[in-house]
DNA sequence: ATGAAAGCGCTAACAT
DNA sequence: ATGTTAGCGCTTTCAT
């Protein structure tokens, strides 16, 4: 593959001139420039990225470290981030941490080694994995969950408020014993949704018993078991707030097995909208999160940090909104 | 950030010794090695990726160019590819081409510039974008759709057979006028599914009229319109084969609006399984594609090419399988 | 406006 | 077994 020297030789100029014409920093004599362009085209020249990166001490690559792209919520974030990055000339490296601090650390190491320009991170937990990043001065912006130390930029959604509104809505619809299935303790979004649920309960003067709460992984299988345990106990809930979309699948499976109809028998509100939620009978009431926007906003923020913006750390909180459909009403 | 010379100085050895201990190519005196490791740790040394890449003339990065990660089929491919790549020490750069040849070309350019080790590509169309890749000797493996020139490695699924079986199944269930909603002409998977549908029709001696076929983008909106046009015409179909999951959403929306119940009124089989297909009433009969496996197989193949394996081009065809549920039977 | 040359940080001959 | 040294291909002073 042709190098800059090949192009220079062919055009009868120095490598410096080639570099200048191709990068357009300084002005170059039009005649020479034309020769350079022609030579480059003839040779099919493509600048060597690694060489340029080494010389410039910077790369146009960012890492996106999320728990799992197969979760539609993160998929949308990924898409948003990639769109913004791409149009700014950056590439994004996809990293699935599975909420495993060790994997997270591995990916952070890679980002550091490759001198990536920045990282978009949905932190797996309280661990101090991020510290090396910060120490190296690599810009980081947290998505969905804040950085453990809580300093630094973050793009979050107010899921506590979303949960509160959802719970209040359920109460308003006449449900009396509202339960909640949320994620693991320590995962901020899980805890926030639970907190919002409790706030909603208090505001609506409904009973707030731990017997109505279950935790599991943010996955269908765990939620399915949790729903079963909740719905078959004495004094079972007559409504459920479910903390994410994958969990909803499990919960609805259990309900089908128990022949409990959403809405009529057990009111249901779930986090995250999805195309298929309207196809169910009854259609699902959801708390929709602006996932794609989180991706774009986070990427924009990261890019501005990369380009040296030095204002103080910001945390942008987008709002979730309740989309009322029929799974949260009795008829 | 510390360089290899800093480490060498601190350990009182040459940079070559540092490089050797850290990469473990040749054996190094244990005493020296210990000093090197200590020095590296104290300085928080991390090898400079771009420098190493430049020197070695290779990178541990592959590009994954797909039409859209938000499509769950591609999401699963992405996840599979990333898992394999990661455990082999490679990173994957996510590229959404939106089936747009121009974007595809941009991403291929980036891959070339950055001297990525290989590319996993789901080609957007017939265009000759791939040619530069091939010319540069960059390993490429096609996923889901073969490379336009049809040479080269590919990991596909036999969606023609899947479509044929699905159609035959529908016929067996007693449906008479079986229709098909597929993707744009020229997109191989769309054409193959249509071909399989026709084969199935012929095998079952059912009428095979173009009036029962519609094409649209592989998206919900287009499919929704297509379904409407199909189902409201004279001699409307009494069953439908739908070529992907996103389209299924549109089709089912139309059916709901027209108060047509899947199975009883119009038999339905759709491509791609998804967690929610069992939650519908009736549960959807699907042609399940092994998307995650396609990702892993393709990545493995790519990695073997990268490491210099020079056997002839292979095309691996995985099979789709029909999962019969209730949307394809009358009762 | 252009060229010569240094050097980014690393690995791999080559020499010892 | 270890050190010396030459580059990988590029950008960017520094001269001219």
UniProtKB/TrEMBL annotation, chains A, B:
Protein name: LacI family transcriptional regulator
Keywords: DNA-binding, Repressor, Transcription, Transcription regulation
SUPFAM superfamilies: lambda repressor-like DNA-binding domains, Periplasmic binding protein-like I
Gene3D superfamilies associated with the record: 3.40.50.2300, lambda repressor-like DNA-binding domains
Pfam families, per the entry: LacI, Peripla_BP_3
Species of origin: Saccharopolyspora rectivirgula
Record GO terms (molecular function): DNA-binding transcription factor activity; transcription cis-regulatory region binding
Domain HTH lacI-type, residue spans: 2-56
Entry coiled-coil feature ranges: none
InterPro entries from the UniProt entry: HTH_LacI, LacI/GalR-like_sensor, Lambda_DNA-bd_dom_sf, Peripla_BP_I
């Amino acid at each position: 593959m042709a190098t800059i020297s090949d192009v220079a030789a062919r055009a009868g100029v120095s490598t410096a001139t080639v570099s200048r014409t191709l990068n357009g920093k300084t002005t170059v004599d039009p005649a020479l420039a034309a020769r350079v362009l022609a030579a480059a085209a003839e040779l099919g020249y493509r600048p060597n990225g690694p060489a340029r990166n080494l010389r410039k001490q910077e790369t146009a690559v960012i890492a996106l470290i999320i728990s799992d792209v197969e979760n539609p919520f993160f998929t949308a974030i990924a898409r948003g981030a990639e769109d913004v990055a791409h149009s700014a000339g950056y590439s994004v490296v996809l990293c699935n941490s599975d909420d495993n601090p060790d994997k997270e650390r591995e990916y952070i190491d890679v980002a550091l080694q490759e001198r990536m320009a920045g990282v978009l991170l949905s932190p797996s937990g309280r661990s101090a994995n991020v510290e090396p990043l910060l120490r190296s001065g690599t810009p980081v912006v947290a998505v969905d969950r804040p950085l453990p130390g809580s300093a630094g930029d973050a793009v979050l959604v107010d899921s506590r408020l979303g949960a509160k509104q959802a719970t209040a809505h359920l109460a308003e619809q006449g449900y009396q014993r509202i339960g909640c299935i949320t994620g693991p303790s320590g995962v901020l979004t899980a805890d926030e949704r639970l907190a919002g649920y409790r706030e909603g309960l208090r505001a609506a003067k409904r009973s707030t018993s731990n017997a109505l709460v279950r935790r599991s992984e943010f996955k269908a299988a765990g939620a399915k078991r949790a729903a079963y345990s909740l719905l078959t106990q004495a004094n079972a809930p007559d409504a459920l707030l479910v903390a994410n979309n994958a969990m909803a699948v499990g919960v609805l499976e259990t309900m089908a097995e128990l022949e409990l109809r959403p809405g009529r028998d057990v009111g249901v509100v779930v986090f995250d909208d999805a195309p298929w939620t309207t196809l169910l009978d009854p259609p699902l009431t959801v708390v929709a999160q602006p996932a794609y926007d989180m991706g774009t906003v986070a990427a924009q923020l990261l890019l501005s940090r990369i380009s040296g913006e030095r204002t103080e750390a910001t945390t942008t909180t987008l709002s979730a909104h309740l989309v009322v459909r029929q799974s949260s009403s009795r008829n």
